[in-house]
Amino acid sequence: PMCEEKCEIFKGALPGQYAHAFQDDLFLAKLVELQSAMCEGKLCDICERIEENKPASHWCMDCNDALCETCLKVHLHGKTTAGHSCLSIEEMRRIPLETLMKQKNKVPCMKHNELITLFCVDCREPLCVQCMAVSHRRCENVITVSDALTSRTDVNDVISRLNKLQATVENAGGIGQPDRTLENSIHEAQERINTICNTICDRVRQYQSVLLKSLESQSEKAKGLLKDRIQPRKTGLKSIKAANDRMQTLLRYGSDVEILLAYNQVRKKLDSCQGAIGNTEQKAPSVRLDFILDDTVERFIENFDRLGDLTVDVGDSDEGISSWGVTCTSSDDIIVTDCKNKRIQKFSKFGDLVDYVQLEDEPRDITTCGNRDDVAITMIGKLVIFLATRKTMQLIKRAKTERQYDGISYSEKDAYLIVSSLRDQVVDIIHLDGSVMRSFGSGAGDRVLFNEPRFISATPDRTIIISDVGQNAIICIDHNGKVVFRYKPDGQNGLKKPQGVCVDKLGNLFVADFGNNRVQLLASDGLFQRNVLGIESALEKPVAIRVSGSNRMIIVQSDGMVKVFSYS
């Protein structure tokens, strides 16, 4: 907890020599003193101040001082201390610490040095009488401290939020995981460098030492970047733990005033930091150091130039985005379009590669169409091809199209294809021969509907779901092009370069949130339900997504890894 009050520090103060400038924490000071007094061999505090060591026999509850027999007699007969309550050390040790802490625990006002006895409900601040008369004379709800803490609902709510926030920060991707990821990537890069260098000629070996030195410097740079990214989270977690521990300790040992003082400070700070830390609960800081092999190494005898480069990957790369498509057959076979390698791959439901077709041009997306598990694939070159997949994959036909299309989906009810065009910023409904039936690109008042429409999914109720990468939004239109809903949330549910979309039998909508490494579940009306997959499920940069008829969720990541999850 921080009071956020400015403290003057003398000019010559060195690091570690300015703590005395901060306001004293009277609650912790008393707690530490009482705990110290309960230990064996406690010395008289008054004697210690004049550099004498005498064993303490009593404790003054008003002064919070340990007293020897001599000092006790003086203390009980002094004009200002005669009425103080003194307990023997042995008696005090038999009393629970929480009872001792709450006895005669009066807190003075920092502004007026009067005892705090009131609480302003309107401002949520503990007050002394002068505070009420000067600063809160217009407040209508001022009550006593004891009345204010009759119900601890608000205090318990702050503690509950602290517990949840602490758990969120501790579990958001794992604070230690990024360190291990970076170290592993550095080790992998080093191993790869050494392996390549040991298989080629002396000329490459001369460059090996240069490259390893570069690895060392880049490693330090990467570690520095990771430290800069993760340190605020570690610092925030430390502050949250401290606040939580303090509130728990106050509830056990503190007086009503102390609880209310700390509660107000913690609540204000918690309200200000909740959103900022919450935004980090779904994505862990990621820094990698990768060794990228240069293409010229394969032809090093003719035109050797360099072995490779070291780059620091901070997890923001768009590599692999929009490079995959996926669908599944009635027998749960998985069909994947590999845009980079220009091929269509068929996997069994157990993950075995069953068949593949090498293409001349790049495929863009894929969908099943019809009842025989045929698939339709959008291709570079204004083309849609149809393949049979029941046994071996075979070409059925080709259909030329008027536009270059990217995303594709099939409407079971209407037996037509729905396609998207990034270049023309439109969504078209086309016949199976490629001719356009309807085209959607503008809304009311000729407002452009789409920026970068990429993936598409037809729903059972004849609506069309489109992921718009440029707008970071999901747009739903009916078969006449009217917008049903637009999902573009802010805050922790905000989309970052959304990719694949699909629906299940009940009309629930799933979105591959590429930039946030998660899959979001939306209701059929576009309302957010929850995140069903994320980093904690080892999901990284999902691109294509499909839910099979047997309730299996198939996801293709940007690195080409196909992952299958059970869904219920």
UniProtKB/TrEMBL annotation:
GO terms for molecular function: ubiquitin protein ligase activity; zinc ion binding. Transmembrane segments: none annotated. NHL repeats lie at residues 324-350, 484-525. InterPro entries: 6-blade_b-propeller_TolB-like (IPR011042), NHL_repeat (IPR001258), TRIM45/56/19-like (IPR047153), Znf_B-box (IPR000315). Keywords: Metal-binding, Repeat, Zinc, Zinc-finger. It comes from the Eukaryota. SUPFAM superfamilies: B-box zinc-binding domain, NHL repeat. Residues 39-89, 104-145 form the B box-type domain. SMART domains: BBOX (SM00336). It holds the Pfam family NHL. PANTHER family: BONUS, ISOFORM C-RELATED, E3 UBIQUITIN-PROTEIN LIGASE TRIM45. This is B box-type domain-containing protein. The lineage of its organism: Eukaryota, Metazoa, Spiralia, Lophotrochozoa, Mollusca.
